[in-house]
Amino acid sequence: MDTPEHPKPALPHTEMEVPDWNDLRLLNAVLRAGSLTRAARMVGQSQATASRQMDRLERIVGVKLLERSTSGAQLTRAGLALVEDLRSAWDILERAMARMHAPGRARETAKLVTTDGVATYWLPRFLPFLRDSSIELRLFTAHEAGQDRHEHFDMSIHFMPPNDPNAVFVKLGMFHFLPYASADYLARHGTPRKAEDLARHTLLDHAFYLIDKGTWKMRLPETTEDVRVSLFTNSSTVLVECARNGAGICWLPSYVSVFERNLVPLDLGLNLSTPIYLCHYRDSENNSAVRAVIHFLKHIFDRRKMPWLRDEFVPPAQFPPQTVESIMASYAPLQGG
Question: What is the distance, to the nearest Å, from the Cα of residue 307 to the centroid of all Cα atoms in its chain?
Answer without folding.
Answer: 24
